[in-house]
């Protein structure tokens, strides 16, 4: 196995951990889209959102107009 394959394998394992929202029974209301330059690149859990709110100079957190709940997190 080449070093590129090893790195790719590690990256794939990490990506699978990030994408465990779909497998772990987390409800849709507990996650928010994570958007970079207009493209959704991932999802953020509500408990992580609390930490991101501490860095308004980095993350722009927009509220949904109807529900007044966070709908998207921008960087």
- Gyration radius (Cα, Å) is 15 Å
Shape: globular
Which percent band covers the strand fraction? 25-35%
Biggest sheet layout: 4 strands, mixed
Mean pLDDT: 69
Instruction: Figure out the total of helices.
Output: 2
Measure the end-to-end span.
36 Å
Strand neighbour order, sheet with most strands: 2-1-4-3
Poorly predicted spans: none
How many beta-strand segments?
A: 4
Q: In terms of structural class, how would the helical and strand content be classed?
A: alpha+beta
Task: Write the H/E string, N to C.
Answer: HEEHEE
* Count of separate structural domains: 1
Helicity level: 25-40%
What report would you give on this structure?
The chain has one domain (3-74). 31% of the residues lie in helices and 29% in strands. The N and C termini lie far apart (36 Å). A 4-stranded mixed β-sheet has the order 2-1-4-3. The radius of gyration is 15 Å and the shape is globular. The chain has helices spanning 3-18, 46-52, and strands spanning 31-36, 39-45, 60-63, 70-74. The protein is built from 2 helices and 4 strands; from the N terminus they run αββαββ. The longest helix is centred in the N-terminal third of the chain and has 16 residues, at 3-18. The protein is α+β, with helices and mostly antiparallel strands.
């Amino acid at each position: 196995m080449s070093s590129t394959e090893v790195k790719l394998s590690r990256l794939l394992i990490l990506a699978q951990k990030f994408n465990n929202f779909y497998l772990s029974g987390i409800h849709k209301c507990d996650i928010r889209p994570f958007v970079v330059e207009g493209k959704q690149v991932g999802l953020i859990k509500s408990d992580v959102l609390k930490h991101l709110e501490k860095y308004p100079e980095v993350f722009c957190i927009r509220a949904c107009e109807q529900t007044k709940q966070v709908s998207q997190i921008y960087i």
